[in-house]
Design brief:
Layout (H helix, E strand, L loop, with lengths): L2 H13 L1 E10 L5 E13 L5 E10 L4 E10 L6 E3 L2 E5 L9 E9 L2 E9 L5 E11 L22 E7 L9 E3 L12 E4 L4 E5 L9 E10 L2 E10 L2 E11 L1
Protein name: DUF3598 domain-containing protein
InterPro entries: BFA1-like_DUF3598 (IPR022017), Calycin (IPR012674)
Length: 245
């Protein structure tokens, strides 16, 4: 199958529909600085040739707004879809320009969105997380803290696939468990609630390679990890790991 078409089909199959949920914005220090509710409408037409995207936003001060993102036409999309996981954002680090990146994970009728924004100086301005449920299900709050996985636990089995910006996907390979906190000890580690942990650099620079990663522990037996890699200043590749018992 054509790579662009496969990417488009993953978009249609895993992320279209009406998603209802809530979002939180975090400072680099990990403090919640804003919360709001959202209904995301991603509607695909009958022959799957177009997707319309509209967000309804409901803020805590009682105000609301509607954002229309236009129409995506088959098979063009700037996001990379590796099955039910996607990433989207700046392809290169530009001087004096805002840098953004987003991950999306879906499991059954729930999806997680993690967004990172860096200002014109390259410093992390904020990160945010969204928890959404398909078909307007009531949002739920998981009050459990992120379960710390034991480093000595050999029962976790990982499978990794790599996707390049031109949408080539590698065959899955087995991987060993390593805490996301160990990927780069100089990075920020943020607990975004709902068993979501993110790691990202405090600043992005045009001449420095870096990664941004997110873990979502779905349940006691399944964890999804997305990592995007930039080499020098350009998006190099995106990986998805699924860890299970």
């Amino acid at each position: 199958m054509n790579l662009q078409l496969k990417n488009w089909n993953n978009f249609c199959n895993y992320h279209t529909g009406d998603w209802k949920g809530s979002k939180k914005r975090y400072s680099p220090e990990g403090k919640v600085i804003r919360t709001w509710d959202v209904i995301t409408h991603l509607h695909v037409n009958q022959d799957q040739s177009e997707i319309t995207h509209q967000d309804e936003l409901f803020y805590s001060d009682g105000t609301n707004e509607v954002k229309n993102y236009g129409i995506y036409k088959k098979p063009q999309t700037s996001a990379l879809f590796l099955d039910s996981t996607f990433c989207w954002g700046s392809k290169i680090v530009k001087p004096d320009a805002i840098f953004i990146f987003e991950f999306g994970f879906r499991h059954k009728d729930k999806r997680v969105l993690c967004y990172f924004r860096y200002d014109e100086t390259g410093k992390l301005e904020y990160s945010s997380t969204g928890i959404e449920y398909l078909n307007n299900k009531d949002t739920q709050q998981n009050i459990n803290n992120y379960p710390e996985l034991k480093k000595a636990d050999q029962t976790w089995i990982g499978s990794l696939q790599k996707m390049t910006p031109n949408q080539v996907i590698s065959e899955p390979i087995k991987t060993n468990w390593k805490s996301i906190k160990e990927l780069n000890k100089d990075y920020l580690i943020q607990d975004l609630g709902e068993n979501i942990i993110a790691t990202c650099p405090k600043t992005v620079e045009q001449n420095k390679s870096f990664l941004i990663g997110v873990d979502w522990q779905i349940n006691d037996e399944l964890l999804k990890r997305g990592i995007v890699y930039y080499e020098a200043y350009e998006l190099s590749y995106f990986t998805v790991e699924n860890f299970s018992l």
